[in-house]
Amino acid sequence: MPNAAGVGRASARANADAVLDALRTGGALSRQQISQRTGLSAATVSRATAALVESGIVVPFGRSPSSGGRPAELLRYAGGSRVVAAVQIGVRRIEGALVDLDGNVTVRRTIVPVLARSGSQEWVRQVAGLVDQLARTAATAGTPCLGAGVAVPAVVHGADDRIDAMIGFGAHDLPLGRLLRDQLRMPVVVENDANALAYGELKEGEASGLSSLVGLFIDNGIGAGIITGGALHKGAHGEAGGIGYLLVERSSLGPSFSDPGDLEDHIGYDAPTRRAREPGLQPPDGGQLTAGDVFRLAAAGNPVARDLAEEILDITAMAVAAMVIVLDPQLVVIGSTEPARDSAMVPDVQRRLQGRIIHVPRIAAAHHGADAVLVGVGRLAAERAG
Which DSSP category does 153 fall into? Predict the structure, then answer.
């Protein structure tokens, strides 16, 4: 049975979203006009606008012209003048940005992570320093920073936003959210990167107006964010959408996987590097060869990379098929740090699924491109702060 408090918070958030949508599109409105536009009761509008005014997202904007009675107070959306700090953690770089409440990225910062050695948490201090720098930039510009959102390639669970494992960072059972909140003294939300992408697409992207979708995020690994009933579905242990652990073939039942899982062992992390070396395709500068590198080399005409890219597309389509068969979403969104690749993957995945599953839903590239995760975790941070 759903938790009553949780249902109440979800209802209040939905009402606030409806009020904000009315003010974004309608300009300055009275509470009565908001009620007419949204269909919400006067009491509901009054509660929602009071909370939004308290948070500063909505501000008074004078009064309407008198028609004989008492002039009504007008309210105006002010979200564009308030921001959150959004951070996306990757093995190659940590991206930071200020994101306003309309999902616009206004300032960007990038740092190279100090990967863990002997359990070092230097990268946590790096993230805290990046958020602090962004917040100071916002203050200088006169746009208050409401809080911070941090997207990670890992499972997140618990009140302290604990991450189970993050390959390359030495992060195992680390209370990242609590650590950052203690250092920064501001509201901080930590979320899985695929979940952040899916949530951003629901609120301000391809899934606007829908209630169910799967957001696929491909970087050094692969993960899925699941939206059902207009909300994130994280499962009993926060592990829903961990498609890197899908079993790909019969031989998958042999070895025991910890990290990465079986599907990710085929296309994520060091898999392209390991498999490309076999036929003689060397990574650039002797480093890791990511799926993105494979697609770039394939586009440049490398025949070995073309074969490997086809295999990656096959396995990605199999992962999408599994999610669609189980969840029956209205939409599947594909996102990564390389938007051009995402757009190119869409028809390839659709073609592989036609005639092989009962219904192929609409498949689209992430609306916000390379910023999709930042925008999504920014939206989550704004809601937590509000």
Answer: S
pTM of the prediction?
0.80
Q: 267-295 b/e with 16+ CB inside 10 Å = b?
A: bbbebbbebbeeeebebeeeebbbbbbbb
Rounded Cα distance between 349 and 368, Å, is: 20
Q: Quick count: other Cβ atoms within 10 Å of Cβ 325?
A: 11
* Spatial distance between the Cα atoms of 166 and 164, rounded to a whole number of angstroms: 7
240-275 pLDDT per residue, tens: 998 888 887 777 787 665 556 777 776 655 565 666
Length of the chain: 386
Q: 42 vs 18, 130, 345, CA distance in Å?
A: 13, 43, 47
The Cα–Cα gap between 52 and 285 comes to 52
The secondary structure of 49-85 as a DSSP string is: HHHHHHHTSEEEEEEPPPSSSPPPEEEEE-GGG-EEE
**What is the rounded CA–CA span in Å between residue 246 and residue 326?**
13
Dist. CA 174–CA 164, nearest whole Å: 7
d(CA 211, CA 232): 10
As a whole number of angstroms, the distance between CA 319 and CA 91 comes to 23
pLDDT at 305 over 90: no
Eight-state DSSP code of residue 283: P
Using alpha carbons, select from 288, 260, 263 the residue that is nearest to residue 276. Answer: 288
Name the helix (H) or strand (E) containing 193.
helix 193-204
Query: Please, are residues 158 and 95 in contact by the beta-carbon 8 Å criterion?
Result: no
d(CA 32, CA 207): 29
Distance CA 167, CA 172 (A): 9
| Token couple for 219 | 């970087």
